[in-house]
Amino acid sequence: MRSVWFIASICLLSLSGCTTPDTMSKRELGVQLYTVRVDMARDPVATLRRVAALGYDEVEFAGTFGKPPAALCEETKILGLDVAAAHADWQMLRDDPAAAIAEAKALCADTVMLAWLPPEERQTLAQWRGWIARLNRIADLAAAQDMRLAYHAHDFEFASMEGVRPVDLLITGLDPRIGFEMDTYWIAKAGVDPLTFLRDHADRITHLHLKDMTADGDMADIGAGTLDIAAIVLQAERQGVRHFLVERDDAPDPWASLAASLDSLRAIPLQRSERSLR
How far, CA to CA in Å, does 27 sit from each of 55, 62, 236? Predict the structure, then answer.
């Protein structure tokens, strides 16, 4: 990310060396723009500017809302926002994966993400295996464009089907180049401990969606629920995850939600290490 590469460059020029990125004074945090989808539909550029003004460092796109991808890319550059990934429509990935990859690349993303599959596409294990084979082929197309493919899991992948959990098929069947976006809320909603899942699949998880859960199982702002978000973030950092994306699908006031979640995440102590670059 921007600050990591900057600091690494300074380290190489310094005689005394400096600390590695995990001792930096700032944790880079992002927004999944689905949270502010109403505002994105009205004015994508103004919405990006407001996200940057809140103090976030990166965004993840969930559509272009009629705006040319290159124009949105240019705006993120102006604002100093990194682009963690671009969520692609499942039909576009199925019918025209090259177009989905091109759109993500035009948005300044290096990752195109399958964000969701509708119920009719995931009724049987045969359908899941078909999608796994398709995604492996798409991963080759993405790699040819210097792009990555990733999969965003919800709760339905954890529901057993014929004695098999689709998530296990995905983990074992997908090409290891394909990343996973773990959503803290949906994993917990499925009855799985997010921290345990994160540790068990340290080599596969590349992105995190951060949202909290109330005692009643509803979505909540970070810090207003029951999930140990701090432990999850710190463990993810130890594993090398670099994309921490705040999202709340049902926020009554999305901007207040983003502000509150950002404050809570900033309160999490930074990792410290004695390693240094010399």
Answer: 11, 23, 12
Please write the tens of the pLDDT for every residue from 83-127. 999 999 999 999 999 999 999 999 999 999 999 999 999 999 999
Q: If DSSP codes are grouped into helix, strand and coil, which group holds residue 111?
A: strand
| Distance in angstroms (rounded) separating the CA atoms of residues 32 and 62 | 7
Which residues, in sequence order, are CB contacts of 58 under 8 Å at separation 6+?
1, 28, 29, 30, 31, 81, 82, 83, 84, 243, 245
122-146: pLDDT as tens digits: 999 999 999 999 999 999 999 999 9
Phi/psi-derived region of residue 235, left when phi > 0, alpha when psi is between -120 and 50, beta in every other case? alpha
**Rounded average pLDDT over 239-262:** 97
> Could you tell me the two tokens for 56?
């976030």
Nearest to 29 by CA among 66, 68, 78, 84: 84
Phi, psi of 182 (to 5 degrees): -90, 125
Q: Is 108 helix (H, G, I), strand (E, B) or coil?
A: coil
DSSP strand pairing (212-213 vs 219-220): antiparallel
For residue 54, give the H/E element and its range.
helix 44-54
Mean predicted lDDT score pLDDT of the chain: 90
pLDDT bin (cut points 50, 70, 90) of residue 257 is very high
Domains in the chain and their CATH numbers? 29-270 (3.20.20.150)
**pTM of the entire predicted model:** 0.88
Q: How far apart are CA 93 and CA 120, in angstroms?
A: 16
